[in-house]
Design goal:
It contains six helices and four strands; from the N terminus they run H-H-H-H-H-E-H-E-E-E. By secondary structure, the protein is an alpha+beta fold. It starts with a helix and ends with a strand.
């Protein structure tokens, strides 16, 4: 397999896979499991597995593009295949800029911008770097984070 195109696309658009819709996240998890199998499969089976991986990779890429096309910087699929040196130039420019301090409120701002305001798991908040302890109703800056499920740690975000 040449390149994992959906990962390149996510990197170019500064997207975290935890912020994607649940079905897309599940497809990425399936892809990762299948990619790990590539090492253990015999040579006869590798061709078939590579074809499946490539088709799943394109399917994930198309789903991401379809869902987030209007919100992305590089919204053409072809731009995800741009060579690495351009990516390095962009990264070096970002390093030169003053780094923003990531706060709980800025993380919630990004989630709201992306439209992820309902049914967010506690582990997703922790993975994104939210440091506040989440209760049934937690005020973080200009947002109210409300627990929406009794038996699961699921939350919704509302603007105050």
């Amino acid at each position: 397999m040449k390149k994992i195109e959906h990962k390149t696309f996510l990197k170019n658009n500064n997207l975290d896979k935890k912020l994607l819709l649940q079905p897309i996240q599940e497809k990425i998890e399936i892809f990762d499991r299948m990619y790990k199998l590539l090492e253990t499969v015999s040579d006869c089976e590798k061709g078939n597995l590579l074809e499946q991986l490539e088709s799943l990779d394109l399917e994930i890429l198309e789903d991401i593009d379809e869902e987030y096309a209007d919100k992305l910087e590089f919204n053409d699929i072809e731009e995800a295949l741009v060579e690495e040196p351009i990516l390095e130039k962009i990264e070096s420019q970002k390093v030169e800029q003053t780094p923003k301090k990531v706060t709980d409120e800025s993380i919630l701002d990004e989630l709201v911008k992306m439209g992820r305001t309902q049914d967010i798991g506690r582990s997703t908040f922790k993975d994104l770097g939210v440091k506040a302890t989440l209760g049934w109703e937690t005020v973080i800056g200009k947002y109210l984070v409300t627990r929406t499920s009794v038996f699961k740690y699921r939350y919704g975000i509302e603007r105050i």
